[in-house]
Structures are given as structure tokens and as C-alpha cells.
Amino acid sequence: MQEDAVKRGSGVFWALVAAASFSPAGALAVALQQAGWSPAAALLARVGGASLILAIPTVLTMRGRWHVVAQQWRLILAYGLIPVAAAQFAYFQAVQYINPGTALLVEYLGPVLLVLWLWVRHGRRPSRRTGVGMVAAVLGMMLVINVFAGITVNPVGLTWSGLAAVCLAVYYALSAGDHGGLPPVALICFGMVIATVAVVAGAGVGVVGLTSGPGPAVLAGMEVPVLAVVALMGVVPGAVAFIAGIMAGQRLGSTVAGFFGLLEVVGAIVATWLLLGELPQPIQLVGGAVILAGTVLVKLGESRPTEELSKLPLTPVPEVAAKLA
Q1: What are 175-216's pLDDT values in tens digits?
Q2: Phi/psi class of residue 146: alpha, beta or left (left: φ > 0; alpha: ψ in -120 to 50)?
Q3: Model-level pTM?
Q4: Residue 315 above 50 pLDDT?
């Protein structure tokens, strides 16, 4: 019992680290775009930088385990293409048709989709507390994003946002699943490499544009070398965030880790305030409190937080990877 409590406590810690690390991604991307960088170039800075940062730790942890890469190639391919590359690409596509707040709200319904998938596919019915917490978290996000200020509904934009939500659900499922002896840092690194190749290939065929400017970027009212922002993008929302997310998923299970991930929305508001000078509104603070309450309810409603996916076959993920290959 004490060992389980320690494991859950460390899971909460890693979940908070993941949410805090993911949070500044939007603000850093805006700073890069204002310095002349395209969204795809900012994404490339994130995934490419993380690949370089994690290369040496990956080589060290993979000594004597390289055969695992061949065994888990479908997992690596799925992770790099879906949660890393496709989710962010889908979000960038969505904001061309609908406002970013609506797109983010739809994307962060990913944990809801995961709960429903576990229910329909494996008969794992959510508890009453989990259901109430799920509803509270969604309502809290609506307040945080201030979606009531105005919504431009476009079916194309909503479709792209829905795809991003599916990718987010896959991220939490993969993070909590069995990696077959593949170290988390290696999974992240290989996934980032796959995403980097995907972005470059997309630019090569004209799907996305890669443009960059010399800078400087502006953060917290100060001019910052653009390369410093690029490095920060690769370290914090790149390497640290994804590693922490996997560590949290393995300890808490995908459902609880997924709803802790909703705190990223609150963190993004704080990061935007500190880095770009945009103050949060009172209604957004209320929404943050509602999200916290919902997250607590979900955690209390999960009687088997670390076992929910470990005993369930994740056959859909390898099948998806096989189709992508």
C-alpha cells in the first residue's frame, strides 16, 4: 500500500511537471512567429531540438537494448506520427478556420474520448466521480479559454480539431501502455526524430512552409536572441514535457494523467501572461479552479489508476501504426 502511494505521488509530480512544461509552447511559438518564423518552423524547432537534446541519453540507455527498437518499431512510428507530429499539425490547420480557443477546447476533449474508448472497447465503465470530474474539467476549460466570447463554427476547422483530439487520446494511451522494455527517453527521442522527418518531408512536398527570421524575439518585454527561444522550445515543451508525460502515464494510468494534462491550459494562460504580457481574466481564473476540482474528482474516482491499461490489450495502436507504415 505504501509503495502504491509513493508511486501515485511520483505520478502526480510528473504530471504537474508535464503540464508546466507543455504550457509555454504556445507563447514561445508566438514569439518565434513574431520574429518571422512560420508555425511549421516553430514545430521543427521543438521536435528537432528535442531530438538533439535526447540523442546522448538515448544512446546511453539503449546500450544492449537496440534489438528492442526492431521489436517496438510500430510503437515508435505511431508515437512520432500521431501524438508528436499529427496533433500539432492538425491544430495548426484548425486555427486557419476557427479561432484558437475553440480549436484548443476541441483538442483537449482527447481525455474524454479516451474514457469513452476504454468504456466501449474494453467495457471499463467510468465511475460516477470520474464522470462528474470529466464534465467539470470540460466546463472549466470552456471558462479558461473564454469560449463564450465568440465561436466561429467551421466544419473543416472542427474536423481538424477533432483529429487533434484523437491524437491527444492516443498520446495518453501510448504513454500508459507497455513499451516492451523501450526506455521512455528512447521512445521520446525516436518519436521526435520521426516527427522531424515528417515535418521536413511535409515541407519538401509543399504541405507546410518553413520560413525563419533572424530575430530578435520578444519575451516578457525584453528582446531575446531567437536562437535562445529555439533552444528553450526544444528543451522545455520538447524534451522535458514529453518525458514527464510518459512518466506520469506509467504511474497514474492514462485517464488520470490525461486529466492532469488539462492543467496545461491553465499553465498556458500563466505563461502567456508572463512571457507576452497578456493578463488572464477573472473568468479564466474561475475556470482554472473548476479544472482543478475536476482533476481531483477524476483521481478519486480511479480505483486502479496504474492498472487501467496495463491489463488491457492496446491492439488498436499497433494496427494504426501498421496502416501508417
Answers
A1: 666 677 888 888 889 999 999 999 999 888 888 888 888 878
A2: left
A3: 0.73
A4: no
pLDDT of the residue at 163: 92
Treating both helix axes as pointing N-terminal to C-terminal, what angle do 263-276 and 2-22 enclose, rounded to 10 degrees?
Answer: 40
Rounded average pLDDT over 258-268: 76
Say which residues have a Cβ less than 8 Å from residue 120's Cβ, sequence separation at least 6.
none
Residue 3: Cβ within 10 Å count: 7
Supply the pLDDT for residue 309. 44
Distance CA 35, CA 27 (A): 12
| Least confidently predicted of 10-14, 64-68, 104-108 | 104-108
The residues spanned by each domain of the chain are 1-209+228-304
Measured from the Cβ of residue 170, the count of other Cβ atoms closer than 10 Å reads 26
- Better pLDDT: 124 or 279: 124
Taking residue 123's Cβ as centre, other Cβ atoms within 10 Å add up to 8
